[in-house]
């Protein structure tokens, strides 16, 4: 993705969302190997995603719900990486101003889908057998993130 500064990251969020955004440490971020920038709030209950591939940057404020109960291996809906149960959690974003309307996906808990699709990180559990290239995995990840953004901000969102 295009590299970003603290100011451009903050500008990707709406005025209302900015109150909740705690910026990440940008030291050492490898922008060229990122499809989206994702980070969690220290509380663990909130997370943030910024996406700017071939579009103006858009931000997502996400609520992270830890899954409880029996944890079977689970698939990330964005990068399709299989994790041990706790490696995938439910991330939801509020749609518009109504707190009761949310859109959610089960996503890598560490929000490091970009590293998993490039083989830079492994989860230690068996993965789906796939014959597609890293480039195709990257394209699929971006498509899934764009779909999530459209579900939250509407079809008119510039993705
Ligand atoms: Zn993922």
Number of individual domains: 1
The separation of the N and C termini measures: 14 Å
Oligomer: single chain
Strand order of the largest sheet: 1-2-3-6-7
On the 0-100 scale, what is the average pLDDT? 92
Based on Cα principal axes, name the global outline.
Answer: globular
Question: SSE string, helix = H, strand = E?
Answer: HHEEEEEEEHH
Q: What is the alpha-carbon Rg in Å? A: 15 Å
Number of helices: 4
Helix content percent band: 10-25%
Task: Kindly estimate the percentage of residues that lie in beta strands according to DSSP.
Answer: 15-25%
Question: How would you classify the helix and strand content by structural class?
Answer: alpha+beta
Largest sheet: 5 strands, antiparallel
Descriptors for this entry?
single chain, 159 residues, alpha+beta, 4 helices, globular, binds zinc ion, zinc, metal-binding, zinc-finger, zinc ion binding, FBP C-terminal treble-clef zinc-finger
């Amino acid at each position: 993705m295009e590299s970003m500064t603290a100011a451009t990251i903050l500008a990707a969020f709406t005025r209302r969302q900015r109150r909740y955004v705690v910026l990440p440490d940008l030291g050492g971020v490898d922008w060229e190997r990122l499809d989206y920038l994702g980070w969690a709030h220290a509380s663990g209950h909130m997370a943030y995603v910024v996406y700017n591939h071939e579009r103006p940057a858009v931000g997502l404020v996400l609520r992270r719900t830890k899954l409880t109960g029996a944890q079977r291996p689970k698939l990330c809906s964005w990068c399709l990486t299989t994790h041990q149960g706790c490696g995938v959690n439910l991330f939801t974003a509020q749609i518009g101003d109504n707190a009761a309307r949310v859109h959610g996906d089960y996503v890598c808990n560490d929000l490091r889908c970009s590293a998993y699709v490039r083989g830079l990180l492994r989860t230690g559990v068996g993965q789906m057998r796939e014959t597609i290239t890293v480039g195709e995995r990257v394209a699929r990840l971006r498509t899934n993130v764009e779909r999530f953004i459209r579900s939250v901000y509407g079809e008119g969102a510039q993705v």
